[in-house]
Amino acid sequence: MTSHREETVTVAGCTIRVLRGGEGPTMLYLHGAGGLAGWAPFMERLAGSFDLWAPEHPGFGDTQDPAWLDTIHDEAYFYLSLMDRLDLREVHLVGMSIGGWLAAELAVRNTSRIASLTLCGASGLHVKGVPKGDFFMWEPEQRVRNSFHDQAVAERVLAQPVSEQQQRVNLRNQRTVALLAWNPRLYDPHLYKWLPRIDVPTHIVWADDDKILPLDYARAYEGLIPGSTVTVIEACGHLMHVEKPDVFADTVASFIAGAGS
Amino acid sequence: MKFTLFHLMPYADLDLSFTDTYPTCWTILPNSYYDPKKGAKLYNRYLDELEYGEELGYDILAVNEHHQNAYGIMPSPIVTAAALSRRTSRAEIAIIGSAIPLRDHPLTIAEEHAMIDNITEGRLISGFVRGIGAEYHSWGVSPAQSHDRFHEAHDLIIQAWTRTGPFAFEGKHYHFDYVNLWPRPYREPHPPVWIPSQGSQETIEWASHPDRRYMYCQTFSPWKAVKHHLNLYRESASRQGWEAGDDRLGWLLPIYVGETEAEAIKEAKPHFEAFRNKFLRMPFEMLLPPGYLSLASQQRVAAAKAQLSGDMTLEQAVDMGMIVVGDAESVRQKIEFFWKEIRLGNLLCLHQFGTLPADLTRANMERFAREVMPKLREVTGAAAAAAQ
């Protein structure tokens, strides 16, 4: 077992929590709308080959709201500053869902500290005529069910007790997601124009049964980021890292190994 | 005590079997359920009822705003208030209220309210609300910005009404280089402002701020909650250094007066239950999207979720003091009791609810206006005179 530790980092007056474990090239994992639950099995697996950093975004979890947080762009500049501040180099940037959108926003601004980019079930774009699942409208159980292909996994997640502290964090996370992604819904209307700027090896990982962001969104990213490739994980829902943690981690790691960095 | 006749203007011809297919008549109920032929009749019927309110002696006629639903087909209270403004001459007209955070351009609200205030020569009462959760789904405005936008839009409107233009308004959500309102409102310094709310602590504190002292109106709620929140307003005012008079407090209450107690219950029951269990029903996620309430309030409400979502009978609602139903004497007694307990100066009477048809609505209004209102005026007026 790789041991992990919890650290805090302060950037732009905002202190966040970072889970960190493993050794090897630096990997920065940006979580999705659900927040940073804890050191998850897929993290453990990635920490076998990487020095994995999993920060909790400003506005999520139990930390204070920074006064500057209004849009996903603020989150992107925060992480650019964080990488400068910690002098992270040759970073393998991995973003899940809204974290994928954030990773893309970050990469169109500056890739000088980024070695590779992995977008997993990433929001950030809008494809006309391809509606996204409206998870703000879904009841809690439906939200869980629609996040997974295998309903046995959904049952397992639903059976887990939720502490009062976790409920409070969930409310806050949802509030921040509503702030960043309510309108325009889960995308930035200007992002697509600048995705061709991305000049690092880019891997797009998608679930074949993503009920929030259908596969067309993977193809849209593929068409806009030069040289990018798509890997589809079969029989899997949006939360690939929870539903198939080993397949997910290995898919992410093998592209990076293949990219020769 | 002042009496306001309030109308929700529901699409009363709604096919109530919609609940077999849809969880709510808000946001997602296809508008093929709306028949314009029937809707046109309803609009004119409801406006007639409001106009009749002036004849019957109500002090104020009130309209409100709701979007994309069958519960209240008044997406623009400006239209209904404007329609009333030239057909009435004595009663004040209250817009309770305009959902200002839903607008990207709240100056239109300042302009339209000012126009109505001019046309009526100062009979307009303004009101501002945030809009309910479902409307944040319908309008695409982030509920996480609702409070912020409400406060800023309010400041913009009040400044537009009171400051000499042109001036620049430099907000975070709203920034205009030329604020220069034509027309200025008729009333000085501006129309009175009412704040209807379900009773959030933040709203009560804000409305009772000494700079504002807005009339706070508790919307459709159990008596216990009404008492609690109206007292909270008084406490908040005195904490902030002023004494809130009775005229700062209001309650929006469904009222049905029948010939007899038994008839009243029988006549009101199906229509009230349609109002409460069909028109008002909506999934929790639609009612309270993330960020719509402060985290503390959201947690409190989440704990009471089951209570909010269940159906309710008329009898239960009567027991909880959410509606007053009875013959004229018992209705008078109940309202007098409420008044003695909290001394509220404004009663907002909802005499039409859900599917309540025209004849019952009129009879209800007439009995209330002729047999209940004069006696309540006597009691509350005598108390006011004694206090002076």
Keywords:
heterodimer; A: 261 residues; alpha/beta; Rossmann fold; 8-stranded mixed sheet; 8 strands; B: 388 residues; TIM Barrel; 8-stranded parallel β-barrel; two-stranded antiparallel ribbon; 12 strands; 46% helix
Short synopsis of the structure:
The complex is a heterodimer of chains A (261) and B (388). Chain A has helices at 41-46, 72-85, 98-109, 140-145, 151-159, 164-181, 191-194, 216-224, 240-243, 245-258; strands at residues 4-11, 14-21, 26-30, 51-55, 91-96, 114-120, 202-207, 229-233.
Averaged pLDDT of chain A:
96
Count the strands of chain B?
12
| Percentage of residues in strands of chain B | 5-15%
**What's the CATH C level of chain B?**
Alpha Beta
Largest sheet of chain B: 8 strands, parallel, barrel
Q: Secondary-structure map with pairings?
A:
The complex is a heterodimer of chains A (261) and B (388).
Chain A: E1 4-11, E2 14-21, E3 26-30, H1 41-46, E4 51-55, H2 72-85, E5 91-96, H3 98-109, E6 114-120, H4 140-145, H5 151-159, H6 164-181, H7 191-194, E7 202-207, H8 216-224, E8 229-233, H9 240-243, H10 245-258
Parallel strand pairs in A: 3-4, 3-5, 5-6, 6-7, 7-8
Antiparallel strand pairs in A: 1-2, 2-4
Chain B: E1 2-6, H1 36-56, E2 60-63, H2 77-85, E3 92-95, E4 98-99, H3 107-119, E5 124-129, H4 133-139, H5 146-162, E6 167-170, E7 175-179, E8 193-197, H6 201-207, E9 215-218, H7 223-239, E10 249-258, H8 261-279, H9 284-287, H10 295-303, H11 305-309, H12 314-319, E11 324-327, H13 328-342, E12 346-350, H14 358-387
Parallel strand pairs in B: 1-2, 1-12, 2-3, 3-5, 4-5, 5-8, 8-9, 9-10, 10-11, 10-12
Antiparallel strand pairs in B: 6-7
Helix pairs in contact in B: 1-14, 2-3, 3-5, 6-7, 13-14
